């Protein structure tokens, strides 16, 4: 078990890329990212868009923390010198239900903003994505798809959980292909293993996701179950 104050360390190829980026910019790879201009107000503003359950989320998995540092280091300076997201690797967080995938995803957003990165981002579950883009009178789904494709950082939560159809596969392909071509960071979470995910989203999407994204596998028990048990047996929980 990691000590409470221990800093998560980058791992594998992600660590090597991160160290190279930081070194070429004259930054010590072992240093902690410094906050940019007024990170606290920016974080407070962002948290109004983060679901209440995840407003205290932290990106404490070593590989997720390394990805955050890499994206922050690669940002282009903008007004006032604060870095903004440009291009970068994507991240696929996989694991069974309740292992903390969504927690890590929102923790990554909070960490980037807390480090002073100017960040325009959007988060959506796969099910809501398809519901929002489904053709209906008075709704411009094509415009919304373009906006999602151009967003500097997009979180797609629970990919593979929505009902599959040829239409959902085509929508996913169009969205991911545009982000793949522009090399825009996309953070994807899924409950499925890679073989099952490929079967669900199709070979074309899976191939692009495999190339564009680093992969993090979360394991362990369902963290929600102890909380549910405590609500069912309050006396036992306080004993």
TrEMBL record:
Pfam families per the record? IstB_IS21
Q: Where is the composition biased (Basic residues)?
A: 224-239
Q: Which InterPro entries match?
A: IstB_ATP-bd, P-loop_NTPase
Q: Which UniProt keywords apply?
A: ATP-binding, Nucleotide-binding
UniProt KW Nucleotide-binding keyword: yes
Domain (IstB-like ATP-binding) ranges:
89-205
Q: Which Gene3D superfamilies match?
A: P-loop containing nucleotide triphosphate hydrolases (3.40.50.300)
SUPFAM superfamilies per UniProt: P-loop containing nucleoside triphosphate hydrolases (SSF52540)
Question: Please, which domain of life does this record's source organism belong to?
Answer: Bacteria
* Coiled coil residues, start to end: none
Segments carrying the region annotation (Disordered) are 220-239
Record's protein name: ATP-binding protein
């Amino acid at each position: 078990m990691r000590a409470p104050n221990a800093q998560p360390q980058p791992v594998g190829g992600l660590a090597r890329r991160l160290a190279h980026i930081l070194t070429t910019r004259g930054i010590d790879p072992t240093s902690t990212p410094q906050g940019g201009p007024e990170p606290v107000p920016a974080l407070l503003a962002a948290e109004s868009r983060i679901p209440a359950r995840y407003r205290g989320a932290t990106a404490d998995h070593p590989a997720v923390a390394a990805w955050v540092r890499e994206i922050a280091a690669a940002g282009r300076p903008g007004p006032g010198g604060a870095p903004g997201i440009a291009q970068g690797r994507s991240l696929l967080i996989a694991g069974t239900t309740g292992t903390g995938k969504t927690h890590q995803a929102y923790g990554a957003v909070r960490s980037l903003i807390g480090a002073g990165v100017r960040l325009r981002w959007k988060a959506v579950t796969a099910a809501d994505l398809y519901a929002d883009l489904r053709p209906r009178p008075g709704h411009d789904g094509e415009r919304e798809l373009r906006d999602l494709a151009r967003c500097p950082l997009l979180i797609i939560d629970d990919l593979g959980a929505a009902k599959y159809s040829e239409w959902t596969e085509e929508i996913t392909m169009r969205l991911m292909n545009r982000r793949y071509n522009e090399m825009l960071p996309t953070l994807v979470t899924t409950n499925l293993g890679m073989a099952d995910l490929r079967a669900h989203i199709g070979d074309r999407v899976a191939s692009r996701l495999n190339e564009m994204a680093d992969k993090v596998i979360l394991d362990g028990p369902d963290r929600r179950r102890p909380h549910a048990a405590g609500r069912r047996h309050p006396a036992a929980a306080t004993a």
